[in-house]
Design brief:
The chain is 55% helix and 10% strand. With 293 residues, the chain is α/β, with parallel strands linked by helices. Bound molecules: farnesyl diphosphate (FPP).
């Protein structure tokens, strides 16, 4: 069905391209395409398509835990002739929007990769300063957002939080404390986070317990290690989405994604749309998860 639709689409595109070679067609076509009526028609059709997709998705098995590698803020800015900082700013705004869409679907666990240990080593002081300001502003906005409280969202940050500046740690405390009593949804922000570092921290804890005689060698298994992860209180992600065209994991939740479905999309994070989220879930629903069967 999908293949037939694709080939029909290609044929229509070919026909349109051929027709546009004639002035009598191309001139009025340009006028129509640039008119506000055309854009309003297109955005209306897009909205209808997105809503139909949503209706279909909620009939199926939705993922319980979605995690996103938000990538492409700077490329979005540079490709739109904006300053780098504007890309990050739009990225923060996008996160609040996407959180709304995830809540609307009733998906209880949502995790984002907001700052890696590598970012902290490689980005300039100036860029890191801006990012820290955005985390403070974003966490405060989220903590005060009435929708977070009416939907019962608990917010937590995980990573090597000690390495963050005090203003970020204070904003994390404020967001965690303001939402501590909620339990319907869990929103996790990975900050100063590295998957290998998380595994190292877990192994250190296990080694310390073994050395003190509290943990026998034969009791060390994958459940033990999982229980020492920063994310011990949430299920492993069902679906990991990465924006901006890179197809790699970049040290994100290495232990937890052993059986996750991965979805890569070319759109830069600030341009990520509701339809992009739904398409990722659609692709997730079309896969048979096998867990080694
Ligand atoms: C990757 O884009 C994005 C980041 C390093 C930071 C993402 C931060 C936000 C979206 C704000 C989050 C706010 C809160 C409250 C957690 P990039 O800089 O790597 O862009 P590039 O891939 O184009 O270089």
């Amino acid at each position: 069905m999908g293949r037939v639709r694709k080939s029909l689409g290609r044929r229509i595109d070919g026909l349109a391209k051929w027709l546009l070679r004639f002035r009598a067609v191309s001139v009025p076509a340009r006028v129509v395409a640039n008119s506000s009526y055309a854009w309003s028609f297109i955005s209306r059709t897009d909205r209808i398509r997105t809503n139909r997709l949503r209706d279909r998705l909620i009939q199926g098995d939705l993922p319980e835990h979605i995690s996103i590698i938000m990538d492409g803020n700077r490329r979005f800015a540079w490709s739109s002739n904006l300053e780098r900082d504007m890309g990050h700013h739009q990225g923060k705004e996008k996160l609040k929007e996407v959180m709304d869409w995830v809540l609307d679907l009733g998906i209880p666990y949502f995790t984002v990769y907001a700052l890696s240990t590598e970012n902290m080593r490689e980005r300039s002081e100036d860029e890191l300063g801006l990012l820290y300001d955005l985390y403070v502003a974003g966490l405060d906005e989220i903590a005060e957002d009435p929708r977070i409280h009416s939907r019962g969202v608990r917010v937590q940050a995980v990573g090597r939080l000690d390495s963050l500046p005090s203003r970020v740690r204070e904003a994390i405390d404020r967001a965690q404390n303001r939402t501590a009593s909620h339990s319907d949804f869990l929103f996790t922000v990975c900050l100063a986070y590295g998957g290998r570092e998380e595994i190292v921290d877990a192994v250190r804890e296990v080694a310390a317990e073994h050395a003190s005689g509290d943990l026998a060698l034969e009791s060390i298994d994958s459940a033990q290690i999982s229980s020492k992860m920063y994310t011990a209180d949430l299920p492993d992600p069902d679906l990991v989405i990465r924006t901006s065209g890179e197809e790699r994991i970049s040290n994100f939740l290495l232990w937890q994604i052993a059986y996750s479905e991965l979805h890569f999309t070319d759109v830069h994070w600030p341009s990520f749309s509701k339809n992009d989220l739904y398409e990722a879930i659609d692709s997730y629903q079309s896969r048979g998860r096998r867990y080694g069967e």
